[in-house]
Amino acid sequence: MSSTNGLSSEEEGVPVELSISEIRRRHKDRWVAVVVTKRDRNLQPVKGKVVAEDLDRFLLRTKLGAYRDICIFYAGDPIYLPLL
User: Fold this and answer.
1) Where are the domains of the chain?
2) What is the pLDDT of residue 67?
């Protein structure tokens, strides 16, 4: 949806609701903080609005305000360390 200046809500910095799979695709290999807007019957997040993202999990937490229902996750493949 475009506003009067021709930018979409996302381009203006207003978080838009996306599926968790779309959030993972758009923010690949980054930590994201998502305000949860919909959960499945097992209470797992299925939709939300990205309110912050960063390569560093600690720095991500410093960007967060006082959100009510927030989920933080890594939007990439897990890194497994080899067993020694």
Assistant:
1) 17-74
2) 78
pLDDT value of position 5: 52
Answer whether 11's CB lies under 8 Å from 45's CB: no
- Rounded to a whole number of angstroms, the distance between the first and last alpha carbons of the chain is 52
User: Where does residue 20 rank: exposed (0-12), middle (13-18), buried (19+ CB within 10 A)?
Assistant: buried
Ranges under pLDDT 50 in the chain: 1-3, 7
Cα separation, 69 vs 54, in Å, equals 19
Look up tokens 């690949």; give the residue.
28
Fill in the DSSP letter of residue 79. P
Question: In this structure, what DSSP letter does residue 2 have?
Answer: B
